[in-house]
Amino acid sequence: MHRDSTKVIKIGNKVIGGGNPILIQSMTNTKTEDVESTVAQIKELEKEGCEIIRVAVPTMEAAEAISKIKPQINIPLVADIHFDYKLAIAAMDNGADKIRINPGNIGSIENLRAVVERAKIDNIPIRIGVNSGSLEKDILDKYGKVTPEGIVESALLKIKIIEGLGYDNLVISLKSSDVMMCLKAHEMIAEKINYPLHIGITESGTLRTGTVKSSVGLGILIHEGIGDTMRVSLTGDPVHEVRVAKDILKGLGHRQDGITVVSCPTCGRTKIDLINLANKVEEAVREFEDLDIKVAVMGCVVNGPGEAREADIGIAGGDGKGVLIKKGEIIRTMDESELLNALIEELRNWNNN
Predict the structure, then answer these.
(1) Which pLDDT belongs to residue 274?
(2) Amino acid 180: pLDDT
(3) pLDDT of 312
(4) Is there a contact between 66 and 93 (Cβ–Cβ < 8 Å)?
(5) CA spacing 20 to 30 A to 56: which of 103, 222, 325, 331?
(6) At the top level of CATH, which class does the domain 3-251 belong to?
(7) Is the CB of residue 227 less than 8 Å from the CB of residue 3?
(8) What span, in angstroms and rounded, lies between the C-alpha atoms of 171 and 304?
(9) Distance between alpha carbon 258 and the CA centroid of its chain, in Å?
């Protein structure tokens, strides 16, 4: 099912599915019980562009903390539940906009029914999460190992159970750290259901490896029309998850907000610390999210202007001197050390130009 045709689901003050924009999700790595730290991290993630936040709910204290966290944040909150159905109910009682459960580890059908009945009261979406690392034994025995077919079969079984309890306000997620398995499982289930899909490559790794695996896997799925919400799972500060997710969406043409930085690879002609300069520019332009323009950072004053022709504005430097470029034309020459400040000043006055 292409994302344009998936079921529309309301999560707090956001709407997904049915062709609505793909929303970026992340997860806090604070203790949810620590309300102050959790709120601070969520606000930081909001500032970066996070649109849905998930928090772990391993204890009743964490579930009750949701009621204190919710009034202080501006994006929907998803409660992540494992094993204890009472925590799922408590999370909803305390204001969770959505819950994430694996029906396979929530206990008996009576426990699951209690969760569904509570969700019905406020029409709270349930995200059914299926992980390749926790497939049912009979499915593993049937296929001999973890397979995309087994992941999909497990998900369809769980969907059927909750539908049988009279509820269809569902979001589905299939997770695997294997990129190709993840791709195949999503492609298969997209043909069988019309529920919105939350996509992600789970346990994808550190900033470098996780970015690569997530960019490949999620990029392909989104290009194929699969995915209504997304999370880039990285080991580290969740701020990086949001930044990478935004870059993936921008690279695929799904987001135009904010500045896009392009920079040339270094070569034998480069006579400036281009890597350091490009990193500084990328960090500095984050304050100009209202500008939908392209900024070029070039390492050669000879070829830089021509190579930066498609950018709205750019800088190029080498041998102690630098130039400020607009649409391929040099508008100012200056000392190399002044390049970054000159660029920032131009951006601050961009709408006045």
Answers:
(1) 72
(2) 92
(3) 85
(4) no
(5) 222
(6) alpha beta
(7) yes
(8) 47
(9) 16
Nearest CA to 351 among 305, 295, 288?
Answer: 288
Buried b (16+ CB within 10 A) or exposed e, 41-55: bbeebbebbbbbbbb
pLDDT, position 303: 61
Running along the chain, 353 residues long, what does each successive block of 10 average in pLDDT? 89 95 95 96 94 96 97 96 93 97 83 95 93 82 89 93 95 90 94 94 79 93 95 89 91 79 65 74 79 80 65 79 81 83 85 68
Q: What per-residue confidence (pLDDT) applies to 102?
A: 84
CA–CA separation, 246 and 258 (whole Å): 10
Torsion of CA 20, 38, 134, 219, to 10 degrees: 40
Nearest by Cα to 272 from 346, 215, 322, 333: 322
For position 306, what pLDDT does the model report? Answer: 67
- 3-251 and 260-352 share one CATH topology? no
Domains in the chain: boundaries: 3-251, 260-352
Distances in Å between the Cα of 249 and the Cα atoms of 61, 89, 292, 304, 316 are 36, 34, 14, 27, 27
Instruction: For the domain covering 260-352, report its CATH number.
Output: 3.30.413.10
Supply φ then ψ for residue 326, to 5 degrees: -125, 120
Residues 199, 175: Cα–Cα separation, whole Å:
8
Q: Which amino acid is at 179?
A: V
State the amino acid at position 266 in one-letter form: T
- At residue 342, the pLDDT reads 85
3-state secondary structure of 78: strand
- For every residue of 283-326, DSSP letters joined together read HHGGGGTT---EEEEES-TTTHHHHTTTSSEEEEEETTEEEEEE
Candidates 219, 28, 153, 150; CA nearest to 199 is 219
Structure tokens at 285: 């332009």
